[in-house]
From TrEMBL:
Role played: Component of the ubiquinol-cytochrome c reductase complex (complex III or cytochrome b-c1 complex), which is a respiratory chain that generates an electrochemical potential coupled to ATP synthesis.
High-level lineage: Bacteria, Pseudomonadati, Pseudomonadota, Alphaproteobacteria, Acetobacterales
Cofactor note: Binds 1 [2Fe-2S] cluster per subunit.
Species this chain originates from: Paracraurococcus ruber
Protein name per its UniProtKB record: Ubiquinol-cytochrome c reductase iron-sulfur subunit
Keyword NADP: no
Transmembrane segments: 20-40
PROSITE patterns assigned: RIESKE (PS51296), TAT (PS51318)
């Protein structure tokens, strides 16, 4: 009988050891998870960044022929209320003369409203042309003085080292006098 007890005791010890190992591993896993959670959570976008995911722009104060610059996701967005002459000049540009051919109608949702990300596609400068006193380049749109890129009244590259047109952000008209960018 003593022999049978001696054999049972090691099995009981092994079971107890297995249980302790399992509990220790479980506590370690929960501890690692508790420590990792704040670190992983810190990689999510902050509330202020999420708030900038879209921005509303009131178009009422923008007179015909003028423009405003708003910030969206840390970048300037140009909103221009184009004149009939600017629209006509953009539509009459021969596609064969464009470095990055794109029709004016494909870049706007309403003829007179042009919405662009105001970052030069060459080296990321901010082109001039938003203020009435700014030089607008050879094509009446925007001019990047850093390396001499000229954009037309549709934001298309016409002259200079920039490889592509000014980008058109994702935007929608929420009413006749307001747009949402983003």
């Amino acid at each position: 009988m003593a022999d049978s007890m001696a054999q049972a005791a090691p099995q009981d010890g092994e079971t107890r050891r297995d249980f302790l190992n399992l509990v220790t591993a479980s506590f370690a896993a929960v501890g690692v998870g508790a420590l990792a959670w704040p670190f992983i959570s810190s990689m999510n976008p902050a509330r202020d960044v999420l708030a900038l995911a879209s921005t509303e722009i009131d178009l009422k104060p923008i007179a015909t022929g003028s423009a405003v610059t708003v910030m969206w996701r840390g970048k300037p967005v140009f909103v221009r209320n184009r004149t009939a002459q600017e629209i006509q000049a953009a539509r009459q540009a021969p596609m064969s003369e464009l470095k990055d051919p794109q029709a004016d109608q494909a870049r706007v949702k309403k003829d007179n409203w042009l919405v662009l990300v105001g970052v030069c596609t060459h080296l990321g400068c901010v082109p001039l042309g938003q203020k009435p006193t700014d030089p607008r380049g050879d094509y009446g749109g925007w001019f990047c003085p850093c390396h001499g890129s000229h954009y037309d009244t549709s934001g298309r590259i016409r002259k200079g080292p920039a490889p592509a047109n000014l980008a058109v952000p994702d935007y929608t008209f929420t009413s006749d006098t307001q747009i949402r960018v983003g």
